[in-house]
């Protein structure tokens, strides 16, 4: 069993993210510094060559060797630095995605329902990308810039501390500007990411709803929806831009102003003799050295701000509590089910109120009721997809929460109302579990009459099907879903309106197959058709979350007027169905 | 038609040049902004050079000669220059950023707009996640290029050209030698660019793949949980993640190949200038002083060249992104409106004549369908699953065009009606009800311009007139009940109710119900039946259903099986056929 690796840390700065990559980052910085310092050496070699030449003892060979060697080394170091940079940033991105996915995979279905999948998609793509950009671009630039700034400042101080203080006084001004902009921009970045979530959602809905959009000719409307979101994205983009468009000139201007101050003040010092002209020249050249890294930091602040915002969003997911509590009970189920005073609500809306019933192993029970009665939710509770607010559900006398998740789900099969088809072969779609054996697969396929339609597919069971692909009809997908559940060889089978999309003849054939091939199965079937379940051991009538009546068909016909009404509404056709 | 973006039918390598031209066409309305930004770039570069020059001059003349007044004058001039540069710098950053952001906006709109024009077949062949990645991620690559790289690109080229001319004007021979390494870089770039671009394209593709994988897994999460297959989720994800990692690393290494090489070439240039310069001096045609400054000038050429190396990689990424976007933009909807005035007299409301159809070329689904739907009558399509009922209905609503044969609406080819007219006349309640996140009101008015501006009271009045009020009563907060596109807040039956109301409110001449009530309880279903009965007498109804009671009152029943549509005769005959498989 997997234990949640629950190192509960407080949301921390983006730099903590880099901690596991210390080695790589050090190597990266090392190569960058080596390449840079060698670069400073090149002019010296050239200078020396010229000096030698003017002194008349110029020799080509050692110069070329020395220079060539240095140039090659720079080439190697820069390329290595670039490779490590790529490697490190991709590694960070990959691991971060993995951590996110791992976290998501350990969440409950309810959590997924609450959190917005469009947002999770942005988290896993665009947010991770900003962090990747941070690693690949910002780190080296930041480290070498700070290195140069400190070095140059020290040099300036040693030359003339008074003038140096003028220069250093500019740093807090720039710092304030940075701080101000970064603070403002972070919320803007957060908001622009939320717009990104919204864009994802609009695109996604318009793709899933393509058929409807075509049918009601709502292309324009979708486009307007998108324009609206995209327009907001543009507004945020422009606001962010405005801040940075202001920041960079401010930095340059401040730097220029210090240069000006040096000229005016230093000029004064030179004229009144308190500073030599040589020192003044050196001071000026170091000043130009200082400006470039400051600019680089200015440009990088954009990357940093974006990465920080993204990391904050990602941390939100990474640090959300593990909701999936896995019990540890591993046991072969018999199939007894008891519901004791189970209630459930969505927000303020009660969905199920005080439901109690029990099902004996091997018996068959039907749940019927009008639309939105809570039937599907009841099945979700039995499947442990959601937890009841009150009450307990037991299987074989044990609270279902006590069962170990994997073994529990391997013994309870669920056929969802809407079909979920993965983009893989029919066979893989059906054998969607480790416990499926060749025999159980074969049995499931025969029972759900899957071969009847797969035989017409180009590659039979090996044909790849897809969710929105047109390869399978609604009824065929539902049969595939049934086969998927049956392939587990489950002890308990939960059917959610399975027969809605299947024609009557096939439905009967399949249900007969199920009864014959899985005789010991405990069957809980949500259905609209009374005709198909009159012989069931128990029928539960749900209405607006309440259990109105329960009993056999005959009992309900006697004591429940609601049941009789439903029954009568189906009479005209049930007659025909009952004839055969 | 093949709409699969990841298996394009026409694989054609587009050169950077043509691709770039196509891109420029798309942002041509930004021309004036670009021009001003360009001027600002030149201005900034000029002022940036002017500052040090003025400082140097002030030092040389006034500081050296101890004239403090002159120093102050020059400080004043410098102050003015710095202020000017402050303004122009702001202007440049802002303009270029704006162009970038607006390009992103325009591109995203263009792609999404195109998506809306494409037929249903396109969406069946492509994955949502991949499309999202194209609309969001690939367009952003272009934005990055425009807002961050383009002006530097232009600026670098300008400085380089200037420095190059200067080098030649000083000494032609030495200039030629100095530029040989630059030529080598150019050749190197030309040789490697296709490879680099390929790596970029491969990476963007895996980004799309990753996005598609995430999208699919997240939307199928309940099955993953119910079958205890979190490991499967992780495994699929890890595979896509690993693929992305591999291609991204390969891309990074490819993109970074230029910079070190350009640096090497810059060093080589210095060495060659030194060596050749020394030779020139020894022949007496050059001086040491000139050589020293020549080496410095060469840097003015090679520094921007080095910058270009980084920008060039950005450019390759942007072009690869643009290619993926163009793949969508060049797609044409093959279901346009045709011009025809030919109208058959005495034709029914809708007629299918010898219609053949298949989703793919190699597999025909419908064979020679002939169908007449008269005004005001009710038809039922019955038959086993996978027989072709939904496909037939989709052709009636022109979600697809037949491969062979004709569909006529009022005796006129259905392809000659524009989308607005066609969808106004033909309503289609799809098998899988689709909701958009919002309220019940927004969803039943989806695509309905007529009632869009009605107040809730007015709308309720309309619903009452259409006998739909009882259905609305099934939603606890009526019109304002919130609904989600996905998720379990709304049951499938409720979704079908909303889809039903949506279609009925549009008052179509022909209403198709494709198992539209399959998950609705039979009592409510009766209600729906009554509503359908009360539709105007001229409304034609086509009902696809498995439940026999829903088709009991049909005027005519068609049996659809194996892609053939046959008249099934009376209701009793149909029942016999369906229940016992006695087809004949």
Automatic annotation (TrEMBL), chain A:
Q: What compartments host this protein?
A: Cell membrane
Q: Tell me where in this chain the ABC transporter domain is found.
A: 337-569
Which SMART domains does the UniProt entry name for this protein?
AAA
Any one cellular component term from GO for this entry?
plasma membrane
Q: Which UniProt keywords apply?
A: ATP-binding, Cell membrane, Membrane, Nucleotide-binding, Transmembrane, Transmembrane helix, Transport
Q: Name one Pfam family in it.
A: ABC_tran
Q: Which GO terms describe its molecular function?
A: ABC-type oligopeptide transporter activity; ATP binding; ATP hydrolysis activity
Q: What is its main location?
A: membrane
Which residue windows are transmembrane per the record?
Answer: 21-42, 62-80, 138-157, 163-182, 240-265, 286-305
Membrane topology is:
Multi-pass membrane protein
Where does the ABC transmembrane type-1 domain lie? Answer: 27-306
What's the name of the protein? Answer: ATP-binding cassette, subfamily B
Q: Which organism is it from?
A: Chitinophaga eiseniae
Automatic annotation (TrEMBL), chain B:
Transmembrane segment boundaries: 34-59, 71-91, 150-168, 174-192, 261-279, 285-302
Q: Which GO terms describe its molecular function?
A: ABC-type oligopeptide transporter activity; ATP binding; ATP hydrolysis activity
Q: Name one Pfam family in it.
A: ABC_membrane
Q: How does it sit in the membrane?
A: Multi-pass membrane protein
Gene Ontology cellular-component terms for this entry are: plasma membrane
Q: Where in the cell?
A: Cell membrane
UniProt keyword Cell inner membrane, yes or no: no
Would I find ATP-binding among this entry's keywords? yes
**Keyword set for this entry?**
ATP-binding, Membrane, Nucleotide-binding, Transmembrane, Transmembrane helix
Which positions fall inside the ABC transmembrane type-1 domain? Answer: 35-317
Q: Describe the location of the ABC transporter domain by residue ranges.
A: 350-582
Note the PANTHER family from the entry: ATP-BINDING CASSETTE SUB-FAMILY B MEMBER 10, MITOCHONDRIAL, ATP-DEPENDENT PERMEASE MDL1, MITOCHONDRIAL
Report the protein name in the record.
ATP-binding cassette, subfamily B
């Amino acid at each position: 069993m997997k234990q949640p690796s629950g190192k509960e840390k407080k949301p921390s700065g983006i730099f903590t993210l880099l901690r596991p990559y210390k080695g790589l980052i050090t190597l990266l910085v090392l190569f960058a510094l080596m390449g840079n310092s060698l670069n400073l050496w090149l002019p010296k070699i050239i200078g020396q060559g010229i000096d030698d030449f003017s002194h008349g003892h110029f020799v080509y060979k050692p110069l070329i060797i020395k220079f060539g060697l240095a140039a090659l080394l720079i080439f190697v170091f820069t390329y290595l630095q670039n490779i490590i940079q790529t490697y490190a940033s991709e590694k960070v991105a990959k691991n971060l995605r993995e951590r996110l996915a791992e976290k998501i995979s350990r969440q409950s279905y309810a959590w997924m329902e609450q959190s917005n999948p469009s947002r999770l998609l942005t988290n896993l793509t665009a947010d991770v990308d900003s962090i990747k950009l941070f690693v690949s671009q910002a780190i080296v630039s930041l480290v070498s810039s700070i290195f140069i700034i400190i070095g140059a400042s020290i040099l300036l101080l040693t030359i003339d501390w008074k003038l140096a203080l003028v220069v250093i006084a500019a740093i807090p001004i720039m710092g304030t500007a940075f701080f101000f902009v970064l603070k403002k921009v972070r919320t803007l970045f957060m908001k622009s990411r939320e717009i990104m979530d919204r864009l994802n959602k609009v695109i996604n809905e318009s793709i899933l709803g393509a058929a409807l959009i075509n049918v009601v000719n709502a292309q324009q409307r979708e486009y307007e929806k998108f324009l609206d979101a995209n327009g907001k994205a543009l507004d945020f983009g422009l606001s962010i831009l405005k801040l940075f468009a202001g920041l960079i000139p401010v930095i340059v201007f401040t730097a220029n102003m210090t240069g000006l101050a040096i000229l005016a003040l230093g000029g004064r010092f030179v004229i009144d003799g308190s500073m030599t002209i040589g020192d003044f020249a050196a001071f000026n050249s170091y000043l130009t050295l200082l400006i470039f890294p400051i600019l680089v930091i200015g440009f990088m602040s954009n990357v940093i701000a974006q990465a920080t915002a993204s990391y904050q969003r990602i941390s939100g997911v990474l640090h959300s509590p593990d909701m999936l509590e896995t019990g540890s009970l591993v046991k072969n189920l018999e199939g007894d089910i008891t519901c004791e005073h189970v209630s459930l609500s969505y927000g303020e809306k009660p969905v199920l109120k005080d439901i109690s019933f029990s099902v004996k192993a091997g018996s068959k029970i039907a749940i019927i009721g009008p639309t939105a009665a809570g039937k599907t939710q009841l099945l979700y509770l039995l499947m442990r997809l959601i937890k009841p607010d009150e009450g307990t559900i037991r299987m074989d006398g044990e609270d279902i929460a006590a069962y170990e998740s994997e073994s529990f789900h391997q013994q309870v099969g669920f056929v969802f109302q809407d079909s979920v088809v993965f983009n893989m072969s029919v066979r893989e779609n059906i054998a969607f579990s480790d416990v499926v054996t060749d025999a159980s697969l074969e049995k499931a396929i025969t029972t759900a009459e899957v071969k009847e339609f797969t035989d017409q597919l180009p590659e039979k069971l090996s044909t790849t099907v897809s969710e929105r692909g047109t390869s399978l009809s609604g009824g065929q997908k539902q049969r595939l879903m049934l086969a998927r559940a049956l392939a587990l060889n489950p002890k308990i089978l939960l059917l959610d309106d399975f027969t809605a999309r299947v024609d009557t003849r096939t439905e009967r054939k399949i249900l007969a197959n199920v009864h014959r091939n899985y005789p010991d199965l405990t069957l809980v079937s949500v259905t609209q058709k009374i005709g198909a379940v009159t012989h069931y051991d128990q029928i539960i009538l749900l209405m607006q979350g309440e259990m109105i009546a329960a009993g056999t068909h005959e009992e309900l016909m006697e004591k429940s007027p609601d049941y009789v009404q439903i029954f009568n509404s189906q009479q005209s056709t049930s007659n025909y169905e009952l004839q055969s | 038609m093949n709409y699969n973006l990841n298996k394009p039918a026409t694989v054609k390598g587009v050169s950077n040049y043509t691709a770039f031209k196509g891109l420029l066409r798309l942002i041509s309305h930004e021309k004036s902004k670009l021009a001003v930004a360009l001027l600002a770039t030149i201005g900034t570069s000029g002022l940036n050079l002017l500052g040090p020059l003025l400082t140097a001059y002030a030092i040389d003349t006034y500081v050296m000669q101890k004239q403090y007044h002159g120093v102050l004058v020059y400080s004043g001039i410098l102050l003015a220059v710095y202020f000017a540069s402050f303004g122009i710098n702001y202007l440049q950053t802002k303009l270029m950023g704006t162009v970038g952001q607006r390009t992103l906006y325009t591109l995203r709109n263009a792609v999404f707009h195109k998506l809306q024009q494409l037929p249903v077949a396109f969406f069946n062949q492509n994955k949502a996640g991949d499309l999202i990645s194209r609309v969001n991620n690939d367009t952003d690559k272009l934005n990055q290029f425009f807002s961050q790289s383009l002006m530097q690109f232009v600026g670098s080229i300008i400085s380089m050209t200037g420095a190059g001319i200067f080098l030649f004007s000083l000494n032609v021979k030495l200039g030629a030698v100095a530029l040989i390494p630059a030529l080598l870089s150019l050749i190197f770039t030309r040789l490697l660019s296709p490879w680099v671009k390929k790596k970029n394209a491969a990476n963007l593709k895996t980004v799309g793949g990753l996005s598609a994988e995430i999208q699919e897994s997240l939307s199928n999460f309940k099955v993953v949980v119910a079958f205890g297959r979190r490991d499967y989720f992780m495994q699929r994800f890890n595979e896509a993640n690993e693929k992305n990692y591999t291609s991204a690393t390969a891309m990074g290494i490819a993109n970074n190949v230029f910079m070190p090489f350009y640096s090497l070439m810059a060093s080589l240039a210095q060495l060659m200038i030194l060596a050749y310069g020394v030779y020139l001096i020894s022949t007496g045609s050059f001086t040491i002083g000139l050589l020293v400054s020549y080496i410095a000038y060469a840097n003015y050429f090679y520094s921007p060249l080095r910058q270009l190396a980084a920008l060039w990689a950005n450019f390759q990424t942007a072009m690869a992104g643009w290619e993926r976007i163009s793949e969508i933009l060049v797609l044409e909807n093959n279901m346009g409106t045709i011009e025809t005035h030919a109208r058959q007299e005495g034709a029914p409301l809708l007629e299918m004549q010898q219609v053949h159809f298949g989703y793919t070329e190699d597999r025909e689904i419908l064979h020679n369908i002939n169908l007449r739907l008269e005004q005001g009558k009710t038809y039922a399509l019955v038959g086993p699953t996978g027989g072709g009922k939904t496909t037939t209905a989709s052709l009636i609503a022109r979600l697809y065009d037949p491969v062979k044969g004709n569909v006529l609406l009022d005796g006129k080819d259905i392809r000659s009606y524009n989308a607005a007219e066609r969808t106004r006349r033909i309503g289609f309640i799809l098998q899988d009800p689709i909701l958009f996140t919002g309220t019940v009101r927004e969803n039943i008015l989806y695509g309905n311009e007529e009632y869009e501006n009605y107040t809730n009271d007015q709308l309720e009045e309309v619903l009452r007139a259409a006998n739909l009020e009882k259905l609305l009563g099934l939603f606890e907060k009526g019109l304002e009940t919130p609904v989600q596109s996905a998720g379990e807040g709304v049951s499938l039956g409720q979704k079908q109710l909303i889809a039903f109301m949506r279609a009925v409110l549009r008052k179509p001449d022909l209403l198709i119900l494709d198992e539209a009530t399959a998950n609705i309880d039979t009592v409510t279903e009766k209600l729906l039946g009554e509503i359908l009965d009360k539709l105007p007498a001229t409304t034609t109804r086509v009902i696809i259903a498995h439940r026999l009671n829903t088709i009991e009152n049909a005027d005519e029943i068609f049996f659809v099986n194996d892609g053939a549509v046959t008249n099934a005769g009376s209701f009793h005959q149909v029942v016999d056929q369906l229940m016992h498989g006695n087809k004949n």
